Amino acid sequence: MKVSSTLRTLTLTLLSATLAASAQTAAPASTASSTTKILQLVTFNDVYEIQPVDGGTAGGAARVASLVKRLRAQNPNTLVLFAGDLLSPSVMSGVFKGEQMIAAFNSIGVDYATLGNHELDFGLPTLKTRLGESKFKWLSANISESATDAPITGTQPDALVTVGDVKVGVFGLSYDFTPILSDKTAVKFADPIQTAQTEAKKLRGEGAQYVIAITHQDASDDCALSKAVSGIDFIVGGHDHSMMSNTQCGNAPYVKANSDARNIWSVTVDLNGKSPVYTYQNIPVTPAIPEEKATADVVASYADKLNADFATVLGQTDVPLDATEASARGKESNLGDFIADSIRTVAGSDIAVMNGGSIRTDTTYPVGQLTKKDAFSILPFGNTLVVVKVKGDVVRQMLENSVSQVESTAGRFLQISGATYAFNPKAPAGSRIVDATVGGKPLDDSATYSVAINDYMYSGGDGYTIFQNLPTTATLVGPSEGPLLAQILSNAITSAGHIAPQTDGRIQIR
């Protein structure tokens, strides 16, 4: 599969000039009929923050809203499509449970969205509340409520909309993320490709001249979808957190944006000929884009509610702290060490682990002050400490699961304390651990160890099903008893005053 990060990148200056010119120049009468068959698809995905990220240099809902307004002025035949992961995780979402995200996206003017895996982080009832607050439509063709066998209340499988002179069919599709749900019985998933075949045929039968799938799944799955289903014209994807476009795989091209609206895609589709002609614009969302006032006011209102308490300074780091996704999910990181050590100190356990997918922000914190907001941004999910007592063979299975998908930077990868492990990423999954120690001694499969995990892992999240059916006596600290992990991190920073964690070889790649 050949994936290019961009087919065309425009500078903001050039984009602004183009948009300004298009807004001021009416289309000649002779081209009016042709322009009504030129669609513009504005797409982005995996947005967790309504404020700018990367120190204010990228993203931000108010900038996106301003950009959307300009793009609509350029071409009123525009659909704004969001490919999932909105409600969580972030500091604000930990407090407001995604309410602020819906308010901001209502202001931006999104048309259609599909469900990502993080939409269910707060459970099905909260998701339904957020769906009910949405002014835009949520499309989900392959997810249904287990209790009713019907689409989740507040979603619909698809939509048929006339854009200019074109009838456009749109449907939503998500990968089966049952293994990472805290409540694995609330919803169920139909096969994505079979669902897509049904949806494409249905929409064509209803008169759709152009069919779009909004998906939340891996790029490889989007490629497979494009190859398997001939009735789809274009795929708007999410989940990968990478800016990519692909015109080489299957029947339909696809695009994906990176996370937190650092960039968005504007794809122009000319349908005047026998086949669609595409023009791709990868647009950076930078401080040079002015903030749209109404959306900025929404953002400010939620920020004001949060900032007073979260501005509290906890302490200082004397070294950069590595919270990047690549490190948290693939190798030892100094922040991962500090978090795991802090948890083990509180738990008093032999081993403490933290799944890398729970360490967020995907950034490096510079030397300087650390606030309560920083701590709750790093661990935003509201997870609690759980301590279990298990045999060494369970610990070994835990470590094997940790590295079983390391090549795809899966969130199950474990940062660890009180133990070490070495793995061979080229070996078959399930046989990758080549060495492991606990307390400086070789891991003994028959020995008993206390292990601090989190409530997400305890419920089987990220493939840790080994913890789901433990006997009652094996749980030393249950999910409703342990403290918040973000609070453990906050307390550890406050207690130390100054921190300077260093990696020490507790995780090795061989």
UniProtKB/TrEMBL annotation:
Report if keyword Transcription regulation is assigned: no
InterPro entries, per database record: 5'-Nucleotdase_C (IPR008334), 5'-Nucleotdase_C_sf (IPR036907), 5_nucleotidase/apyrase (IPR006179), Calcineurin-like_PHP (IPR004843), Metallo-depent_PP-like (IPR029052)
Pfam families according to UniProt? 5_nucleotid_C (PF02872), Metallophos (PF00149)
Which keywords has UniProt assigned to this entry?
Hydrolase, Nucleotide-binding, Signal
Coiled coil start-end: none
SUPFAM superfamilies named in the record = 5'-nucleotidase (syn. UDP-sugar hydrolase), C-terminal domain, Metallo-dependent phosphatases
The residues that cross the membrane are none
Domain named 5'-Nucleotidase C-terminal is located at: 313-468
Domain Calcineurin-like phosphoesterase residue range list: 48-242
Signal peptide range: 1-23
Tell me which domain of life the UniProt entry assigns to the organism this sequence originates from: Bacteria
Q: Which family does the record assign?
A: Belongs to the 5'-nucleotidase family.
* Name recorded for this polypeptide: 5'-nucleotidase C-terminal domain-containing protein
